Amino acid sequence: MRFRRVILLFLLCMAGSAHADPERPPDIVLKGSISGADNQTYRALPFEVPSGIGRITIAFHYTGREQHTTIDLGLFDHERFRGWSGGNKARFTLSETDATPSYLPGPIGAGAWALQLGIPNIRKDAHSDYEADIWFDKVDATPAVSAFSDAPLKTGPAWYRGDLHMHTAQSDGECASQSGRNIPCPLFKTVEAAAARGLDFIAISDHNATSQFNEERELQPYFDRLLLIPGREITTFYGHANVLGPTGFIDFRLGGRETPDFNTMLTRIAALGGIVSLNHPNSPSGEICMGCGWSAPNTDYSRVQAIEVVNGGLTAALGGLVESSISGIPFWEALLNKGYRLTAIGGSDNHNGPSTKPPVVGVPVTAVYADSLSDRDILNAIRKGRVFVDAAGATTSVLELTSGRAMMGETIRVRARERVPFTVHVAGVLGNVISIVEDGQKIAPLGDATIGFADERKSFVLRFDGKRHWLRADVRDAIGRLVLIGNPIYVNF
């Protein structure tokens, strides 16, 4: 048994030796060597952290492993101990909100830091060269690929499906404990539920919090088929808005000295590279749901990227009704009619990760056509409007509206009286009906709108007047209830 533990430790050390460099050259390189005289000693490698740094990443490698040389790693900042990973990690990162397990998140203060080496074993006649590569990222720098992973979880363009609105113990999520008591629900239970539903990505959006990000950094390597996108629900007295992408602090005190209006907040979010979705914007506000409806004065909707048109919690409260006067759909359509380009998305608003009672994780599903499964590409695709919403949470459905090379979210230029061909591609919704919506009104350009095949394309032609319009395709069931909600192709926007 002891021998197996030794072998396991050796394998962990070997696995940790892989050197994964970020794309750019390191800001600092620390090189040196040790010999047999350094056996069972410690060595500090000091380095200077400049001001304005928000994240430090360190990669370490050394020679002599074939002779069983071992070098352990730890870190001290200018004031305190920040962690010890021993020999099990060759690369780690830490910021104010999150850190690689073994290390403590917290402010990255300017001054003298030290990478601490421990040398538990080097043979008397051995020699080892080491190198520590250190990268500094400015405060609020946008990750090149993803916040919690160095590379996309999947590559290549595809429909990736996820849930963009959910809550855990880091705010007001609750679930049953082992003994059946109602307790703050651990974040990993929500991640487990999303993985079990076969989702590709989720954004845990706890209210105003950033504490969830440290847990997500720990969980992402294990859940290597489920992308964890940083999210939070900015919760104000004038409405709720999801911010997707950034991990830095965003002042949610709308109407206060630091954030006098929502447009000030939008400036901050844009600087962080984030996108904004207004959540359940048509909900009534009051004692039942405090600040739930969107009423922030003078909102510049040209700087908002998305509207949550289907909210799982609101749908459940309405007995499963997706469309209503208080759903996000009429709010979204009114803004489209004013000339704003806003992407329709959905979110479960789940507050009980493993629960099978609505709102359930992954209902609705937001399907995003992205170039890869990474923060960068998922968020860019949402910005572009390459999205449809499956209200029932299916992970196999498809809804695509195209006109020539233009797809959902894109603009076509059309002259007066010009006839324009469109094609709707649907899959996984056999027996339902395609519905076409122009400027918020249903039209019937299809002779037969019933979906007769598991995978089907239907085409139609429309004549336009040279003015601004938007056109989208939905799918409804046999009694007219929304199943899939598409995003528009924009005409002359």
Write the layout of secondary structure elements.
Layout (H helix, E strand, L loop, with lengths): L1 H14 L12 E8 L5 E9 L3 E10 L7 E7 L4 E6 L4 E5 L15 E11 L5 E12 L16 E9 L10 E3 L5 E3 L2 H10 L4 E2 L9 H8 L7 E2 L2 E6 L2 E6 L17 H10 L3 E4 L27 E6 H6 L10 H10 L5 E5 L17 E8 L2 H10 L2 E4 L7 E6 L2 E2 L3 E2 L6 E9 L5 E6 L2 E3 L11 E9 L5 E8 L5 E5 L2 E3 L2
User: Which architecture of the largest domain per CATH?
Assistant: Alpha-Beta Barrel
Cα-based radius of gyration, to the nearest Å: 26 Å
Q: Give the oligomeric state of the chains in this entry, treating copies of one chain as homo and distinct chains as hetero.
A: single chain
Structural class: mainly beta
CATH superfamily of the largest domain: Metal-dependent hydrolases
Structure description:
The chain has 2 domains: 2-138, Jelly Rolls, CATH 2.60.120.380; 155-395, TIM Barrel (Alpha-Beta Barrel). The chain contains 7 helices and 30 strands. 14% of the residues lie in helices and 36% in strands. The model is unreliable at 1-21 (pLDDT under 50). The N and C termini lie far apart (69 Å). The chain has helices at residues 2-15, 187-196, 212-219, 262-271, 312-317, 328-337, 375-384, and strands at residues 28-35, 41-49, 53-62, 70-76, 81-86, 91-95, 111-121, 127-138, 155-163, 174-176, 182-184, 201-202, 227-228, 231-236, 239-244, 275-278, 306-311, 343-347, 365-372, 387-390, 398-403, 406-407, 411-412, 419-427, 433-438, 441-443, 455-463, 469-476, 482-486, 489-491. A hairpin with a 5-residue loop joins strand 10 (174-176) and strand 11. The chain is mainly beta. The longest helix has 14 residues, at 2-15. Strands 9, 12, 13, 19, 20, 23, 25, 26, 28, 29 and 30 form an 11-stranded mixed sheet that branches.
